[in-house]
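[Discussion] Sanity-checking designs against the backbone

I'm trying to build intuition for which residues belong where. Below is a structure token string of 103 positions. I'd appreciate it if someone posts a full sequence so I can compare it with mine line by line.
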């Protein structure tokens, strides 16, 4: 005796129902502009290797080295909002390299 099982939620593996021409065009009308916008955004926002790119005028860029990180108890702990230990760190900031100005 052979039993057949019917799967629910239309999981049949028969032929797919063809989409109407209007549905295909509407889907393409949404997807193509989104894809173009994504590519344009990637090109426009891609980081550059130029020094100072994206820096605000008048700001000085400093570099530094983390010399130590120490976990200390927090002074007061709000309920279920913060970790029981707060990080504390020390930095050594190097002075900016002398750059000749032309003008």
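Best answer:
Here's mine. Compare freely.
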């Amino acid at each position: 005796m052979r039993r057949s099982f019917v799967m629910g939620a239309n999981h049949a593996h028969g032929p797919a129902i063809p989409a109407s021409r209007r549905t295909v065009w509407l889907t393409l009308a949404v997807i193509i502009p989104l894809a173009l916008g994504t590519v344009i955004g990637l090109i426009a926002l891609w980081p550059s290797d130029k020094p100072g790119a994206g820096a605000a005028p008048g700001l000085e860029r400093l570099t530094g080295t983390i010399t130590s990180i120490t976990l200390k108890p927090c002074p007061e702990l709000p309920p279920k909002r913060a970790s029981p230990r707060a990080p504390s760190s020390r930095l050594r900031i190097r002075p900016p390299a002398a750059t000749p100005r032309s003008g």
